[in-house]
Amino acid sequence: MNVHLSSTIQTSDGADGSIDVNAVSKSYGSVEVLSSVNLAIAAGTFVTLLGPSGCGKTTLLRLIAGFIEPTQGHIQINGVDVSGVPTQKRPIGMVFQNLALFPHFSVAENIAYGLKIKKVAADEIDRRVARFIGLVGLDGMGDRRISQLSGGQKQRVALARSLVLEPSILLLDEPLSALDMQLRRQLQIALKDIQRKLKTTFVFVTHDQEEATILSDTVVVMGDGKVQQVGTPQDIYSNPNNLFVSKFIGELNEIKGRVTASGRDLTLETEVGPLTLPASAAQGFTPRAGDEVVVCLRPEHLHVAAPDAPANGSVALAGQITDCLVSGPLTHMGIQTGRTILSSVMMTQAGNAALPSASPCKVLFDPAHARVFAPLSDRLAKAFGEQP
Ligand SMILES: Nc1ncnc2c1ncn2[C@@H]1O[C@H](COP(=O)(O)OP(=O)(O)OP(=O)(O)O)[C@@H](O)[C@H]1O
Ligand SMILES: [Mg+2]
Predict the structure, then answer these.
(1) Is the domain covering 253-383 a CATH 2.40.50.100 domain?
(2) Any idea what DSSP says for residue 62?
(3) Ligand nearest to the CA of 35
(4) CB count, 10 Å around CB of 123?
(5) Which residue owns the Cα nearest ligand 1 atom 22?
(6) CA geometry: angle at 267 spanning 262 and 273, to 5°?
(7) CA neighbours within 13 Å on the CB side: how many for 230?
(8) Closest ligand 1 atom, CA of 52?
(9) Alpha-carbon distance 345 to 348, whole Å?
(10) What is the spatial distance between Cα 263 and Cα 352, in angstroms, rounded to a whole number?
């Protein structure tokens, strides 16, 4: 089977705050942890690197920061090749999960530290520190010691300390992952707001797909040391270009099957029975008779109806309800269909009660919503913790 990853080489315009990663690979000994990464980051955008543990997110940030150098390829910042340029000479700031604030200094002293090192005039330091204390929402807390702050407040100091130096690019490696959900939400909103105001390029690492979706202009999905897809959150959700991306973002029904014929239509023998889909459902590869494939459908694209409901151009599968949960405006259902259980999410119809389990039903979907992918490679399956 011929699987092609789209790694279209694009370049940013070289503006202040832009990054171009050109065919960058990084190996440690014989182990390649990043493999020919191409990535163009436009100035002033919020870009998220998203992927499972070990896929190379931190390595890519460290390469951009200049802590390590690529084994192959090169990186341009603001249109200039930064090969061999040390970290402190790159126009970047960094915020990491381990904050390394000075615990005995006050909030203001921590934020002022970098400016003092740069020998900025005292009144200018005061002005900038006051501005950034306000920007991160710590008004009135300038004199507090770090040891007297909550986790979220410390994170805000770390952010201000980096931003006060006015870098064109800020690299953030999972800065929110140690915080509880509520605090995390608050800081996500603050981060997005600050990024919009300052128009600094943010390169943000997370393995939380929801966080990536909320924050980003552009999401870079990484898996097994490679860029799997680059796009807007909506694009990545609606038009994933392989099974890995599709599984990583949002809920998914996966139906295993085999191609029986492919031409204008794709005919398949699957766990839910025979299916005929438009050939355009196949993404990122050219299916041939005999190929193993996975048909993917989002739960919101599966409509559950009475057994005798008309198909009206939809694909119709006979099934049986296994569970039905009405949760306010949404109704979640599990439907035994052939050898698999599909999940569906629909808007709750006014006055509808939950359907009893074992009720026979029909599952309907628009064939245009189906995506057919090649199965995961063994290496990508491992990244998901699946047995290949
Ligand atoms: N200095 C090093 N020497 C050898 N291997 C390394 C080194 N640094 C990273 N690696 C390996 O490179 C791979 C990618 O690591 P990286 O830290 O970039 O992953 P990550 O995507 O940031 O993961 P996480 O989400 O767990 O932080 C891992 O398999 C890691 O073990
Ligand atoms: Mg990491």
Answers:
(1) yes
(2) H
(3) 1
(4) 8
(5) 58
(6) 160
(7) 15
(8) 25
(9) 9
(10) 42
Give the domain ranges of the chain.
19-244, 253-383
Atom of ligand 1 lying closest to residue 26 CA: 12
Domains 19-244 and 253-383 alike in fold: no
Q: Rounded to whole angstroms, how far apart are CA atoms 163 and 154?
A: 14
* 278-302 residue pLDDT tens: 999 998 788 999 999 999 999 999 9
Q: Which two tokens stand for residue 178?
A: 């140690």
Beta strand 218-223 with 46-50 is: parallel
Helix (H/G/I), strand (E/B), else coil: 371:
strand
Which CA distances in Å does 202 have to 24, 163, 172, 217, 373? Answer: 20, 11, 7, 10, 32
| DSSP summary character for residue 182 | H
Sign of CA dihedral 365, 367, 371, 375: positive
Ligand 1 centroid distance, CA of 56 (Å)? 6
Cα of 107 to ligand 2 centre, how many Å? 27
- Residue 201 near residue 45 (C-beta atoms within 8 A): yes
Residue 44's Cβ-side half-sphere holds a number of Cα atoms within 13 Å equal to 8
pLDDT digits (tens, 9 = 90+) for 148-180: 898 889 989 999 999 999 999 999 999 888 788
Strands 169-173 and 201-206: parallel
- Which pLDDT tens digit goes with each residue over 215-260? 999 999 999 999 999 999 999 999 999 999 999 888 999 999 999 9
Q: Looking at ligand 1, which residue's alpha carbon is closest to its atom 17?
A: 58
Identify any residues that bridge with 170 across adjacent strands, giving them in sequence order: 93, 202
Residue 83: CB atoms within 10 Å: 12
CATH 3.40.50.300 fits 19-244, yes or no: yes
Q: List, in order, residues 6 or more apart from 196 with CB less than 8 Å away.
A: none
Using CB atoms within 10 A of its CB, is residue 263 exposed (0-12), middle (13-18) or buried (19+)? Answer: exposed
The pLDDT value recorded for residue 124 is: 95
Residue 45 in contact with residue 151, Cβ under 8 Å?
no
Taking residues 310-336, report their average pLDDT.
Answer: 93
Contact 145, 105 (CB under 8 A): yes
Paired tokens of 83: 């090969």
